[in-house]
Amino acid sequence: MRTRKIVPSALVVATTVALLATGTQAAGGAPAVAAKQGTTDYTVILEEGRNRDMAEKAIRAAGGEITRTNDAVGVLTVKAPASGFIERVSASDAVLGAAHVKPVGHSPAQPKVTQEQVKRAEVESENKTTKPNASPKGTKAATAGLDPLDGDLWGLKMVRSDIARAKQAGDKRVYVGILDTGVDGTHPDIAPNFNNALSRNFTIDIPFDSDGGVFDGPCEFRGCVDPANHDDGGHGTHVAGTIGAAANGIGVSGVAPNVSLVNIRGGQDAGSFFLQPVVDALTYGADIGLDVINMSFYVDPWYMNCKANPADSPEEQIEQKAIIAAVQRALNYAHRKGVTLIGAGGNNHEDLGKPRTDVASPNYPPGHARDRAVDNATCLNLPTEGDHVISVSALGPSTAKADYSNYGLEQASVAAPGGYFRDGLGTDWYRTNENLILSAYPKNVALAEGAIDANGEITPDGLAAGVKKDCKDGVCGYYQFLQGTSMAAPHATGVAALIVSQYGKRDPKHPGTLTLDPDKVEKVLTKTATPRACPNPRTVSYVDVGRSPEFDATCEGDAKFNGFYGYGIVDAYGAVTRGGNFL
Question: Looking only at Cα atoms, what is the longest distance across the chain?
Fold first, then answer.
């Protein structure tokens, strides 16, 4: 494994954002805001190796009450006064720091879209915010033996999953965790591989943010806790489909179409990922024996978590230090337990080794971001810069680095298909839906977004965005095109799952499952990746496709390893046929 800066997984919010002022704790998720006015919830991180009794005494002395613990990583959830608690409790030698949760529960003054939703739409749904060009007709067709819509899965072919499955299509004893916004376990392409018994939701819906705007929106289920087979955002289901949609004669198939999929939800409907749910999901996934966990997100509210940024208040510095420690501990814990960790490189079109000014933090509550000068030495994007995380950059159909994709010698491990709407300048494929990644789309989300009507028929807006419908034996599934490093990471996750399927051994700690040391998985993944040299010239300008000069990117490194492609493009066929040479 290459040496990287030690940093936690995706950016996870300072603590689980509380729901309503009910004074109750959400089952398996973030605690709710205390009913008593003037108190709120915190995530307190204990110093490793220090006396636990001293820490608890410090918490009580600072006015706190412990309501929940995660002993795997030394994290406590505490109800305490809404102001002053973080600095008071962090003064104890037994406490590393704490993260503050802003109270939630105001009635909305007017609906508003969150920053995270805006960012996602700008990148992942670019084809929905910009009218796509009409795609060429009759130039793509499904390959024999694959599912009906697999002809649109150029990513499946780029990573050679279509031919790898003749030798290894995945093993049901390999369990892949989807740490995301949820997974629609009822989707006809997900259901055959979905493990409902092991799936969990570690979040509670947050209807409104603390400034009175709509956040997740109205709760669909009693107690504001979605079932473990539900996805009200669509992101997690898309990710799950790319990893392991079943090859069952309907819709699409995934990179590893026979593995088991487990929802370990840590993301809100709005697309935000807060600290407590992410940490709990990682440690739970490790405890139940997951082989691979996909993390297509960053941990909110800080795009860059800095240990001591003078632009931040003392309390904010303590919070970020606590986030870094808690996430890294959870990553270390999962790695020790045999989990291969895959992370999306991020969609901020920057060299993470030379980060620009952070203009996105803090993103919760919405509208509170400010410009922050950040540096590479003390600031981290999590989880992609976390230790043990295999970070993935995104490519278009031409294998060019996508305009939005982050990159960097220090961060990029491998590259994978993520979609690139503006790929193919000068060809008929430029700015077409088919340049993106097609995967599963929850029916409830398609209906809410106006892509289908009440009768399940695709609307004109849905047709323009390339939404597809496929039916078999009276059962229909829906599919949408998205792009992003969130779509690249699951291609790598699918290949990692095939590696465990091919070379894994029976796991004595979890009967009926396979296991393979994550360092060995990473070695096979990187050694069998298809090397790709930097482009010539090394600096790529995206001005001709309508981007500002800010998007210009310079590739550093050589053909064996560079900042755009890492060790190369993940290769499923190479992994299952040649991977044993590296074990």
Answer: 71
Structure tokens at 583: 């074990």
Contact 182, 74 (CB under 8 A): no
Q: Residue range 530-547: average pLDDT?
A: 98
Rounded to whole angstroms, the Cα distance separating 530 from 463 reads: 35
Strands of the sheet containing 65-70, edge to edge, are 65-70, 75-81, 39-46, 95-100
- Distance CA(477)–CA(189), nearest Å, equals 7
DSSP 239-302: HHHHHH---SSSS---SSTTSEEEEEE-B-TTS-BBHHHHHHHHHHHHHTT-SEEEE-S--SS-
Burial class (CB in 10 A: 0-12, 13-18, 19+), 505: exposed
Q: What value, to the nearest 5°, has the Cα angle with vertex 571 and ends 483 and 409?
A: 70
CB atoms < 10 A from the CB of 510, how many? 18
Least trusted range by pLDDT, from 40-54, 92-106, 309-323: 92-106
> Side-chain half-sphere of 441: how many Cα atoms within 13 Å?
30
| Tokens read off for 1 | 């494994």
Q: To which H or E segment does residue 438 belong?
A: strand 437-441
Give the global pTM: 0.91
For residues 231 and 319, give the distance between their C-alpha atoms in angstroms, rounded to a whole number. Answer: 29
Per residue in 128-176, pLDDT (tens digit) is 888 899 877 644 434 434 899 999 999 999 999 999 999 999 999 999 9
Q: What are phi and psi of 343, to 5 degrees?
A: -125, 145
β-bridge mates for residue 260, sequence order: 175
Tell me the mean pLDDT in the region 78-96: 95
